[in-house]
Amino acid sequence: MAVLLLCGGCAKKSADGMYPEMTPEEMAPSPYLPADDGKPLSRNELIAMNYKSGFMGRLSDKDEQEVLLHFKYFTHRWRDGFERYLQRAERYLPYVQRVFREKGIPQDIAYLAIVESGFNPNAVSRAGAAGMWQFMPRTGDVFGLERNWWIDERRDPYKSTVAAAEYLLRLYEEFDDWYLALAAYNAGEGKIGRALDGTGASDFFELCDLNDRLQGKAKLKEETRKYVPKFIAVARIMNNLERLGFRPLDFSKWEEPEHIAVAGGTDLSGLARAAGISWDEFVELNPAPQRQATSPGSKVTVHLPKEVLDKATAYLKSEKSRSYAGWAPYTIRRGDTVAKISRRTGVPSREIISVNKLDPKRLRIGQTILIPGSNTRNVQAARTAGAASGGVYKVRSGDTLYKIARMHNTSIKSLRAANNLNKNSILKVGQRLTIPGAAKGGSRGSSGSRGELKARSTYTVKAGDTMWSIARKCNVNPLALLELNRMTEKSKIKVGQKIKIP
């Protein structure tokens, strides 16, 4: 069986996402086994240390000592950090407990989210694990958590909780022991299975005691050996919060959000505005989307307060919610500049810069940006309109054969054949090209202008509008919009001006 790793650790947000890096105060504590602070336990702390849940058996003095060190760390030195964990737990713990209860998982296992991330859905480990349950990419894939340029469902606190429950159940079914299941959650079931075979141990603590029998990479890492004692300490604290002087968890205001299916290409920032919540509030509710739009090719689930459901539903039924339906990712290649990408895609440089908040001087090879207006029905309409323009096109600055072919709904091969061009031919500004498949009688002669599209409506320019933003609002192809209004990419518009919409 393949090893599926799920590692905890310090949270660090990638620079390519839309969330800020976490501060050190928000990160999970790093020591695998904290040092003793030398402070004796109070009477209430002693009572809490003696807590046992249904699956927690009696531990040896040595194992109890390791639990004690974690217990004292969280209740003494890391107390402020643990308080922050509790604040986040109020948002997610009721849902986690419900899912675990429905699946027959002991309720104390829900506190594993504290060990993994402190209930932080934005946590990212140095090993690449992400989300509240710290799924590694491969493990997330196995349990159906979508992960691409647009979204990372490992960060979805609801979907990842269901995935974590399914994984924990599978581990328990394999090892028939919750401590071993927890160790496997950290190290992978293959690692724990091989360690059991190599030592002949029958439970987790015996496995740790016999770890020296294993050789090289077969040995359990310190992180895994201290993982279960840390969890036991957390469970004892969580079951004795008031006794230990922590503020009790308050679930009186908790309400599970509505989980809404959203179509591909949806403008999420527009959805937030329509629902009457800020973008920051939307992001807090929905850590999984990595862009302000959903992927054009797939549906996703967003989470919203129940009281905004009607407004959100109305927005999603409207055409304006699909502003990003034809947008597509583009990966920067060696030698790319914004100007080259603009010529290659037919999208004005200023729009590429604006949409992606780019610094044109700092493009990185492998960086992915968003290109508006690709793969929509309106692109096809613009191509068809160009093809019926009269058979002649006058080359302009920035044109390429690819751009011209796409504009006129033909292929580069056909365009070369019609104009006796080869792969080494260089286009010149003012050069006239014959467009294959165009109507022969419709040419406008040497001007090379194309035929007109018909307007179906008009749009009044508002402050801050550009022709590209108008195309997006009206869900039309930008090239067709420029064509209909006899404009170029450099044309200026004024507030109050009437723009024809194809």
Q: Could you characterize the architecture of this molecule?
A:
With 502 residues, this protein is mainly alpha-helical. The protein has four domains: 29-238, Lysozyme (Orthogonal Bundle); 258-322, no CATH class; 330-447, Membrane-bound Lytic Murein Transglycosylase D, Chain A (Roll); 457-501, Membrane-bound Lytic Murein Transglycosylase D, Chain A (Roll), CATH 3.10.350. Helix content is 40%, strand content 6%. The chain contains 20 helices and eight strands. The protein has a two-stranded antiparallel sheet with strand order 1-2. The chain is elongated and about 90 Å long. Mean pLDDT is 82; it is low at 1-28, 374-390 and 438-452.
Structure characteristics:
Lysozyme, 502 residues, mainly alpha, 4 domains, single chain, 8 strands, two-stranded antiparallel ribbon, Membrane-bound Lytic Murein Transglycosylase D, Chain A
pLDDT averaged residue by residue: 82
> What's the N-to-C terminus distance?
57 Å
CATH third-level topology of the largest domain: Lysozyme
Strand order of the largest sheet: 1-2
CATH class of the largest domain: Mainly Alpha
Tally of helical runs: 20
Gyration radius, to the nearest Å? 30 Å
Q: Estimate nothing, just give the exact number of structural domains.
A: 4
Any idea what the shape is?
elongated
Pattern of helices and strands? HHHHHHHHHHEHHEHEHHEHEHHEEHHE
Based on DSSP secondary structure assignment, what is the total number of beta strands?
8
- What is the chains' assembly state? single chain
Unreliable residue stretches: 1-28, 374-390, 438-452
Helix content: 40-55%
Largest sheet: 2 strands, antiparallel
CATH architecture of the largest domain: Orthogonal Bundle
> Strand pairing plus helix content: what structural class?
mainly alpha
- The fraction of residues in strands falls at 5-15%
